[in-house]
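Re: export button greyed out
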Amino acid sequence: MSVLSKLEETLICLKAGRVTLAYPAQAEATPENFRGRPIFDATKCVGCAGCANNCPAREILVFDLCQEIRILQYLGRRCTYCGRCADVCPEKAITMSREFENATNRIADMGQKLDLFMSTCQRCGRCFKGAAALDELKMKGYRSDDIAHERWVYGAHSFMESEPAADDIQIELD
Amino acid sequence: MWKNLCEKMFGRSLWVYHANSGGCNGCDIEVLNVLTPYYDVERFGIKLVGSPRHADVMLCQGPAMRSTGQALKRAYEAMPAPKLVFAIGSCACGGGVWFDSYSVLGPVEKVVPVNYYIPGCPPRPEAIIYGVAVALGLVDKKVAPVEFKQVEFPIPIYHPGDLRRENGMVVYEKVERV
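Workaround output, generated via the alternate export path:
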């Protein structure tokens, strides 16, 4: 009797088949509403910096190189893929792609950097710039995120690519 | 020959230690999902161990926080020498949305050196398997930095260094035509 039950169990086990997904060889399609890495389209972007103002992780940095060139930099490292930048974009220049295979050994690989040409007002050719640094902060759509002085934006080494990251903070071990 | 066979078969079997230093448990659930029969990373020889002293790889989730930074560092120091650290999720890669909070020190790479980053909030189980496969050398990484540059400047550039104040007006001394 017990032998028969064991045989029956074996049969059940053989009938069960395999459920394991052979992932790197064979992929499963992502769901329709899956939000992956945002893709920035430089040809559509008008440089309004609405995405930078609405990013909860303060992930998109905007700064003006000169009067005509605005640089929009997406760091990609602490993006939570909330899709708010794609929602707020008036020109639909940001699309949330469905790619998720973003593993990398350099986090700078996730970054996207756009140089945008901003045309100036033809009246005088000069934009208004505030007298003090605080006035710049009050201007709508303008973020003074200076990448060269990224230390001031974040106050830590590990956010900068040039600086070694580990042991940024001294922790004493007992 | 037996030794060669063993090295070939067990050479890349990573034993992972799962360290959460203050995340929201979203990435933990995805990591445990990877160990389920559906995704089954044990076919790569990956095994979850309970102690950092047995581990080759530390999977970090959550940012390094003021309260857990020391414990994370101690767990890293306790691992035997050829060791890898994976940062899983946005919090471990870059600090997450709370990167400037008072209790968050920042990404885990501030405390321990990170070898591989798996961004996502949380990353899909496939993304974690993909990161492990990148580390094992089974697949190549897909992402590359994107840079869009303007090559032509239709109108002259004004350098701030060339600005000169004169009688309450700003004068551009040099106009560069490109």
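The first strand of chain A starts at residue 38 and ends at 40. The button fix ships in the next patch.
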